[in-house]
C-alpha cells in the first residue's frame, strides 16, 4: 500500500482524501510516533491520543487563515507531521531540530509557543477579538484545543467568563482523556465524568441549538417562550449546565477517534453563533496498547523498541539517581518523622517522583491539579494553621504563582518550603521549560530565604533546615543525575557559604549543582599552575557577604557560576554586595544564562555552549587570571 503521510506537505493536501485514506494517514502518523520514541525520549501518549482530532481540525478549517491554539503544546506532534515538517520530524527535541512544542519560527500554523497549560482559551479569544476589529478579517474562526488536565486552571475560567460576556464566535475543544500527565483530580474531573456518561443530552440539545440559532426574531413573548423551552430541555436532561450558565453553548461528548463524526460536529460548531465548547472524548495512548494501559509511564518514556505484538524493550535506562529522587526521598523521610509536614504538587506527582509519598501519606499529600497559584495560597493557609507545607513544583511552572508567593507566603512570613524541581536548563524541553528565572523572582521578596544545593548532600540537608526555619524558603535543583562531592562537609547554617578551597590566584563562587564541574575546573587550573579556590555559595539570600567580600578583596579574580539568568541572579547579588561595601568590581566575572531564551538541546550541549561546564569554567578563569595580571601590572606602574 502506498504511503500517504510523506506526500502531505500542508493541510491542503488532505482535501479530497476519502475517509478511508484519512484513517490510513492516522495509522501512518502513529507509526511515525513509534519510530521517534525508539531514538529518544519524547512526548508519546498524549500525541497518540489526538491524531484523529488533528486530522479532523485541519480538514474542516483552513488554519492558514483561521486560528488554532494547542494548549500546553506537548500534543503538537501530529500537527507538525501534516504542516510541512514530516521530513524534519526525526530531529524533534534535538539541538537545531524541531521543537517539541509549537514554534512560530517553524511554521505559519504555530501561532504561539505554548508550553504552559491553560492559556489557549484566552489567546484564542484575544485573536478573535482582534480579528473582529480589523475590516475584512471578521470571518476568521478561532479554535482552542485544551485538555481536561489543564481545564481546571484558573485562567481558563477567567477566559470562559470573558468569552460568555463578549459572545464572540469561539470554539473551545475540550480534549477529555481522563488524564493530565497523571490522572486528573478535583471537582471538575468529577463533573466531566458525569458529562461523559450523558450522551442523550448531546444529541437532543444540538437540535435545540440549530432550531434556536435559525429562529427569526418573533417578539419578546415568543422569544421568552423559546428560551423557557430551551432551559426546560436542559434542566430535564441534565439539571443545568455549568458552561451554558456562563453563556457558552455545550456540545458533546463525542468520540474523539471517529474522524467522520468529528468533522460533522466541527462543521456544525462553525455555524453556531457565539462561543461553543465541544467536548471530545479521547484515549491517551490510542493505538499503542502499552501506552493505553500505562499513560503515565508513556507520557515521555525512555527510548524503546517494540515488536508486532507491541511488546516493548527499553533501549536506554539509566540507573543513576536524579536530584528529583533525592528530593522525594527527603520529603518522605521528613513526613515520616514529623506529622505536621505536608506536601503538595500541581498535577506532577509522577514528574516529582512523589508516588510513594502519596501512597504512604495519603492524608498529607495534595495534588491541586494544574493550579499553581491555588497550590501556593493553599499551602499558606496550611502554614498559618501550624503545619509545615512543602510546595513541590517545577521552577518554570511556579512562575505562575508569583503573586501568591508574594502576598500569601512572603508578606505573611509563613514557613512554606518551595522545592523548585527542573531549575536551570531542562534540555530537550526547551525555552518554555528551562527554569532560568527563579533566583531572580525569589530573591526579590523580603522574608524569603533562597538556597541552591551544591550537590546531593546539600539538597537533603537544606530540606531539613527549611522545615525548622521560621519563614518561607526556596530550594532549587536541576533535572540531572545527582552527584555528591567528596570530603568532609560543613553543616547547613543560615546565610553561610561552604569554602571547599581557598586560592591565592582566584576564586570560583559556585551557586548550585554546577559545583562538581567547578571543582574539576579548579583541578585543571592547578595543573596550569593557577591556585583557584572553590566556594559553594549555598545561600543566595541571605548572601554570605563576609566570605564573598573576602574572596573579592584577597583573590586575584572572582568568577561567579550559576545555572540561572544573569539578570537578577546570584552574580547580581555578588555585585550588589561588592557595591554596598565600596569594593571595585572589575575583577568579577559572571557566568550564567544571558539575556536570551535558550533553545532546546541536550543539557550537556547547552552547558558547554554557555561555558558552564568544567572546560568552560576553566577557560573563563584563565582569561580572568590574564586580565588580573594586566590590571596588577598597570597598578604597579
Can you give a write-up of this model?
With 637 residues, this protein is an alpha/beta fold. The chain has three domains: 289 residues, Thiamin diphosphate (ThDP)-binding fold, Pyr/PP domains (Rossmann fold); 154 residues, Thiamin diphosphate (ThDP)-binding fold, Pyr/PP domains (Rossmann fold); 139 residues, Rossmann fold (3-Layer(aba) Sandwich), CATH 3.40.50.920. It is 40% helix and 15% strand. It has 24 helices and 19 strands. The chain has a seven-stranded mixed β-sheet, with helices on both faces. Strands 1-2-3-5-4 form a five-stranded parallel β-sheet, sandwiched between helices. A five-stranded mixed β-sheet has the order 14-16-15-18-19, sandwiched between helices. Helix 6 links the parallel strand 2 and strand 3. Helix 20 crosses helix 24. The protein is globular and about 75 Å long. The protein starts with 18 loop residues before the first helix and ends with a helix. About 6% of the residues have low confidence.
Secondary-structure map with pairings?
Elements (H helix, E strand, L loop, with lengths): L18 H18 L8 H4 L2 H10 L6 E4 L6 H5 L38 H13 L9 E6 L6 H13 L4 E6 L10 H10 L2 H16 L5 H19 L3 H4 L3 E7 L3 H12 L5 E6 L7 H5 L10 E3 L5 E3 L8 H15 L3 E5 L9 H6 L4 E3 L4 H13 L3 E7 H4 L3 H9 L6 E5 L16 H5 L6 E3 L4 H11 L6 E4 L21 E4 L4 E6 L3 H13 L4 E5 L2 E3 L3 H10 L3 E8 L4 H11 L7 E6 L9 H7 L4 H23 L1
Parallel strand pairs: 1-2, 2-3, 3-5, 4-5, 8-9, 8-10, 10-11, 11-13, 12-13, 15-16, 15-18, 18-19
Antiparallel strand pairs: 6-7, 12-17, 14-16
Helix pairs in contact: 3-11, 5-6, 8-9, 13-19, 15-17, 20-24
Amino acid at each position: 500500500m502506498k504511503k500517504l503521510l510523506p506526500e502531505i506537505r500542508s493541510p491542503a493536501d488532505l482535501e479530497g482524501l476519502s475517509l478511508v485514506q484519512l484513517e490510513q494517514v492516522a495509522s501512518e502518523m502513529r507509526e511515525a510516533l513509534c519510530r521517534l520514541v525508539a531514538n529518544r525520549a519524547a512526548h508519546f501518549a498524549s500525541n497518540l491520543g489526538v491524531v484523529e482530532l488533528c486530522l479532523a481540525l485541519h480538514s474542516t478549517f483552513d488554519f492558514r487563515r483561521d486560528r488554532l491554539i494547542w494548549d500546553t503544546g506537548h500534543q503538537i506532534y501530529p500537527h507538525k507531521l501534516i504542516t510541512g515538517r514530516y521530513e524534519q520530524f526525526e530531529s524533534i527535541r534535538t539541538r537545531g531540530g524541531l521543537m517539541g512544542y509549537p514554534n512560530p519560527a517553524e511554521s505559519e500554523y504555530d501561532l504561539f509557543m505554548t508550553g504552559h497549560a491553560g492559556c489557549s482559551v484566552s489567546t484564542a479569544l484575544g485573536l478573535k477579538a482582534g480579528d473582529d476589529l480589523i475590516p475584512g478579517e471578521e470571518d476568521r474562526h478561532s479554535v482552542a484545543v485544551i485538555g481536561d488536565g489543564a481545564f481546571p486552571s484558573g485562567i481558563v475560567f477567567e477566559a470562559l467568563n470573558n468569552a460568555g460576556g463578549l459572545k464572540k464566535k469561539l470554539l473551545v475543544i475540550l480534549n477529555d482523556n481522563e488524564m493530565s500527565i497523571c490522572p486528573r483530580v478535583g471537582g471538575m474531573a468529577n463533573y466531566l465524568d458525569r458529562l461523559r456518561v450523558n450522551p442523550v443530552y448531546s444529541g437532543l440539545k444540538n437540535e435545540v441549538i440549530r432550531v434556536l440559532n435559525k429562529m427569526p426574531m418573533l417578539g419578546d413573548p415568543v422569544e421568552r417562550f423559546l428560551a423557557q423551552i430551551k432551559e426546560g430541555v436542559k434542566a430535564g436532561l441534565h439539571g443545568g449546565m455549568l458552561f451554558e450558565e456562563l453563556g457558552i453553548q455545550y456540545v458533546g461528548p463525542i468520540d474523539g477517534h471517529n474522524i467522520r463524526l468529528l468533522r460533522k460536529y466541527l462543521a456544525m460548531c462553525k455555524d453556531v453563533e457565539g462561543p461553543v465548547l465541544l467536548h471530545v472524548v479521547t484515549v491517551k495512548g490510542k493505538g499503542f496498547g502499552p501506552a493505553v494501559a500505562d499513560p503515565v509511564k508513556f507520557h515521555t518514556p525512555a527510548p524503546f523498541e517494540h515488536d508486532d505484538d507491541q511488546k516493548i524493550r527499553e533501549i536506554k535506562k539509566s540507573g543513576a539517581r536524579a536530584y528529583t529522587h533525592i528530593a522525594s526521598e527527603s520529603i518522605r523521610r521528613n513526613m515520616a518523622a514529623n506529622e505536621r509536614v505536608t506536601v503538595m504538587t500541581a498535577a506532577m506527582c509522577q514528574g516529582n517522583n512523589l508516588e510513594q509519598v502519596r501512597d504512604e501519606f495519603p492524608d498529607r499529600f495534595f495534588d491541586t491539579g494544574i493550579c499553581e497559584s491555588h497550590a501556593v495560597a493553599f499551602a499558606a493557609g496550611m502554614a498559618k494553621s501550624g503545619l509545615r507545607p512543602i510546595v513541590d513544583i517545577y521552577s518554570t511552572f511556579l512562575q505562575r504563582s508569583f503573586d501568591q508567593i508574594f502576598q500569601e507566603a512572603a508578606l505573611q512570613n509563613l514557613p512554606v518550603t518551595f522545592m523548585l524541581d527542573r531549575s536551570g536548563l531542562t534540555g530537550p524541553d526547551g525555552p518554555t521549560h528551562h527554569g532560568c528565572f527563579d533566583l531572580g523572582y525569589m530573591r526579590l521578596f523580603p522574608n524569603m530565604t533562597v538556597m541552591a544545593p551544591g550537590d546531593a548532600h546539600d539538597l537533603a540537608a537544606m530540606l531539613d533546615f527549611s522545615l525548622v526555619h521560621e519563614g518561607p524558603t526556596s530550594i532549587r535543583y536541576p533535572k540531572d543525575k545527582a552527584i555528591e562531592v567528596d570530603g568532609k562537609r560543613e553543616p547547613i547554617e543560615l546565610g553561610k557559604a561552604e569554602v571547599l578551597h581557598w586560592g591565592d590566584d582566584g576564586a570560583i563562587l559556585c551557586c548550585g549543582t554546577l559545583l562538581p564541574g567547578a571543582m574539576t575546573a579548579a583541578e585543571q587550573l592547578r595543573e596550569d599552575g593557577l591556585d583557584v579556590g572553590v566556594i559553594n555559595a549555598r545561600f543566595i539570600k541571605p548572601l554570605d557577604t563576609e566570605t564573598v567580600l573576602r574572596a573579592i578583596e584577597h583573590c586575584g579574580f572572582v568568577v561567579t557560576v550559576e545555572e540561572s539568568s544573569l539578570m537578577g541572579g546570584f552574580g547580581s547579588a555578588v555585585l550588589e554586595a561588592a557595591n554596598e561595601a565600596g569594593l571595585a568590581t572589575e575583577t568579577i566575572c559572571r557566568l550564567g544564562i544571558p539575556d536570551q531564551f535558550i533553545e532546546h538541546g541536550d543539557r550537556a550541549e547547552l552547558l558547554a555552549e554557555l561555558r558552564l561546564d568544567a572546560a568552560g569554567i576553566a577557560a573563563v578563569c584563565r582569561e580572568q587570571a590574564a586580565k588580573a595580571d594586566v590590571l596588577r601590572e598597570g597598578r604597579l606602574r
